[in-house]
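Hello again,

I reread your note about wanting to compare the complex against the isolated chains. To keep things tidy I'm splitting this into two emails, and this first one only covers the full assembly. Below are the input lines as submitted, including protein chains and any nucleic acid or small-molecule components. They are followed by the predicted structure of everything together. The single-chain runs will come separately.
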Amino acid sequence: MKVDILYFAWVRERVGLSQESYQTSAATVADLIAELVTRDEGYAAAFADLSAICVAVDQELSDFAAPLADCREVAFFPPMTGG
Amino acid sequence: MKVDILYFAWVRERVGLSQESYQTSAATVADLIAELVTRDEGYAAAFADLSAICVAVDQELSDFAAPLADCREVAFFPPMTGG
Amino acid sequence: MSARVQEAAFDAAAEAAAFQSAVTQSGAVVSFTGVVRDDTGSLDYMFIEHYPGMTLAALEKFADQARVKFGLEKVLVIHRYGRLQSGEAIMMVVTAARHRKDAFAGADYLMDYLKSRAPFWKKEVSQGSATWVAAKDQDEAALAEWSPNSAAKES
Amino acid sequence: MSARVQEAAFDAAAEAAAFQSAVTQSGAVVSFTGVVRDDTGSLDYMFIEHYPGMTLAALEKFADQARVKFGLEKVLVIHRYGRLQSGEAIMMVVTAARHRKDAFAGADYLMDYLKSRAPFWKKEVSQGSATWVAAKDQDEAALAEWSPNSAAKES
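Full-complex prediction:
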């Protein structure tokens, strides 16, 4: 399965990318993160504290247990600070 | 003692006056009302339901037990509806 | 001076803009505008009576109370009297605070005081017949919630 | 459309005036404006990043939720992204309702959602050094109070 992964704010800065197309067989968001952190130090640093990471699946706020089947876009970012 | 009495909204309409100078020896607001209601039907109608009457003594919101000694201005009106 | 009482119409947008440009410390600005509404489609006009000797001092007092209670940087209260048509602004309150909750609470608090403790009385004239607007129990209840003995609303 | 996401500055006073002139049923209009503040006197600028594919839909969703929950006649949300200077308006929310408590609560509710659930991230750049603004526990707590299981804030 090919999925677009987006990174925002300091997650983007640590990963060093704002967007990438990624081939994965991860079943859930948690599985995807487990794959990503093995890729290099940037990913490891970005996901070092999972309590500081939020996720959106296909542009809806979601959680780490969410399944990735049929999903096209996953976004990782810190807690939002709008307003 | 001479005191200016002011009337507002439907209290004014029932009394038929917006302001008068009144000679009284009433010790409290309640005493003053007791005098006024004997004067004519307009006053009696204005003060028929005391739960619907508010009072200000010298331009400060007050109550019927308030003393009138040294006071210069007493105002009677229905509950306020600003805003 | 934080308060104005006037018969003339005011430009709520211009007032809010001037207020905001004078704010230097606050990240949060809340405004409330009260507008004459014609619920029945039969309102000729609204007439607002007030107590000239008392009104401005009362508004200034409530503005000061709100400023102290919520640590507001700046407060503005404008309230009209006289004859108003449907759609016209009756009054406005603007508050500025460092934190948004204080700006909201300050404006809400001021409105509760203006509704029930500022010496204004509204009369609606519809098809030639005049009715004094009755005070609402819920307005008195809203005011009571700010008292130190109430469980609600205190921060 | 109740929401706009834009890089360009907006005129909060003109937006509020246009909003109010389009309101026909409501006697109460509440606006909130968030402004960039330079607490330390050393802010070069604020940078707001957002998630373009998601932002507008999120704002529209929160505006709809507020409209339904508080019976609002009209809602407006404007939120900027990009580079902002101290004193510039970041965003504004305007609500119109028949009763003032609903207009206040609607704006307060929307602000709580925008603070913690809209995909914006603020970075402060001061003397060449950039810091991402941390989310506040109190913002998350404020949001939790609107949930049906919370004792507070429900009417």
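For quick reference: Helices of chain D lie at 12-21, 52-70, 100-117, 137-144.

B.
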